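Query protein
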Amino acid sequence: MPGVPRHLIFEITRKCNYACPFCYCVWHEFPELAKRGLSTAEWKEIIKMSLENGAEDILFTGGEALLRPDALELVEYTRKLAPGCQLALFTNGSRMTEDLLKRFRKLKVRLCTSLPGLKTYGEMTGTRRNYTRTLEFITRARELRWPLDVSLTATAANRHEFVEMFVSVVLSGAASIQAGAMMLEGRARHLTEQALSKAAWEELKSQIRSLPNCRTSYHFCDEIICECREQPADYLAAFALNNPPCPAGRGFGVIGPSGYFRSCLHTVENLCRWRDLPDMP
């Protein structure tokens, strides 16, 4: 397994209890990539071989990672094999409990979540839930002095409250924030009516930058379409931004729910079984 990149994302399940319209998981376009879920033993084999061959920074995600009954077991196994490895877990927070939060803190697993909306939370998650549980999760992590990173995705539907979403996350105690416009990938591939124009996204960024006394670390993700795949001409004209090169294949990779490795979150180029990884640059 010579081609293991330093940074790896493990998509341990395709299952999710949310139906976010902006979800960029690639199997919404290519369902065969998540047709069969891997067993606990298979994931442990992947984890072990990845660590033995150079992986140093691992993020567990999904789908919703905590829908897997063995999610904690897999994280604990990883930490036991690699006490010094950087570990993180992304969750929508719906299955997070006080006990899990404390156990992840004990395991030194950095936690990440998202706030899809305030009044638009139900629309942006395809559920009847509201945003309060997410903010409570962020606040409790702060009280326990354990960092919780938060991602925010701007769409045409939540654009009017996006700055308020940012402020709510700051006041709740997020350790850091990643704010980005909806990507036209995965479930959102053809939802151009929900995508922001370049000008609209720049306006939101300007409003956030003008907020007073924001001491929370944040950065903007400007990628609306992925440069690693062929894009329609109209997408390029309307949504291509001057982004830094995608890190795909340069010390970064993803192993999906069925065990296929790909070098980018948003494309299926250079797809292979995880056992057949090519040498990484």
